Amino acid sequence: MEFDPNNHVIKLCVQGMGMEEKGKPDEASRLFLQAWNEATNDFEKFTAAYFVARHQMNVYGQLKWLETSMQFALKINDVTVKAAFPSLYLNIAKCYEDLNDLANAKKNHELANSFTDNPADNGPFYHGTRADLQVGTLLTAGSKSNYNSKIIMNHIYFTALMNGAGLAAALAKGDGRERVYIVKPMGSFENDPNVTNKKFPGNPTRSYRSKAPLKIVGEVADWVRQTQEQLQQWREKLANNKGEIIN
User: Fold this and answer.
1) Residue 83 belongs to a domain with what CATH number?
2) What is the per-residue pLDDT for 220?
3) Most buried pick, 156, 193, 231, 245, via CB within 10 A?
4) Confidence class for position 232, pLDDT limits 50, 70, 90
5) Residue 157 contacts by C-beta under 8 Å, 6 or more apart in sequence?
6) pLDDT number for residue 149
7) Using omega within 30 degrees of 0 as the cis cutoff, is the peptide bond preceding 204 cis?
8) pLDDT digit string (tens) for 109-139?
């Protein structure tokens, strides 16, 4: 399942987040409830309930909506949604702790820990860059971050979305042409914590990272490219991002 930013419910949630950023929680809550009321499938209901939960006035309301979100998430057999399980279970556990229901808190902590293994994503996987590389080359951690040159990255990053790798290539440092390589992880990998459960629940961009090398096994030349205006918007967004890179 590929995340669709043009989905009506997703658009309502984006508008709600915009109201949160403007310090208008009542308007944000109204938009999230509208998203819930207009949701038509399990994914939309999972997403809308997740946002409704954070605007509840008490623990009981928050717990109700978090468990509703989890109820629909469990119906969806998709790696992007499964990445939300640990966070959802931990938030549910926190609610039970606040209610002094330690048995259910413990149960949900254990469930959260049970979803910390390798993501069950079989790819294919892609890595975007401007470097001219050959099939068989091993990509390794230890390069400077494209987003903060002062940081040496402890992981090598990749995605299961070709267009996402294409965007990374367009934003990469260097003068070479944009390249999107098909890669094979040579060891274990994890959901990229810099994007997972951040703006939206789960890992909708199917972004991963590994301390083990990535082996280049091929290259693609045809992906959806961003316009110059869109790229400039991305560059400005990254330049204004004050969040710390999780390395």
Assistant:
1) 1.25.40.10
2) 94
3) 156
4) confident
5) 127, 168, 192, 207, 208, 209
6) 66
7) no
8) 999 998 876 788 888 999 999 889 999 999 9
* SS3 at position 14: helix
Residue 18 in domain: yes
Instruction: Say if residue 240 is exposed, middle or buried (CB neighbours under 10 Å; 0-12, 13-18, 19+).
Output: exposed
Beta sheet of 179-185, edge-to-edge order? 138-139, 214-220, 179-185, 125-129, 156-159, 207-210, 190-191
DSSP 234: H
Please check whether residues 97 and 190 belong to one and the same domain: no
Asked if the structure places residue 245 within a domain, the reply is no
pLDDT of residue 176: 85
Amino acid identity of 121? D
Backbone Cα Rg of the chain: 19
Query: How far apart are the two ends of the chain, measured CA to CA in Å?
Result: 27
Half-sphere exposure of 232 (CA within 13 A, CB side): 3
Could you give the percent of the chain with pLDDT greater than 70? 92
Domain C-terminal end among 92, 113, 134 = 113
Q: How many CA atoms lie within 13 A of 184 on its CB side?
A: 8
Q: Over 90: is that where the pLDDT of 173 sits? A: no
pLDDT of residue 228: 82
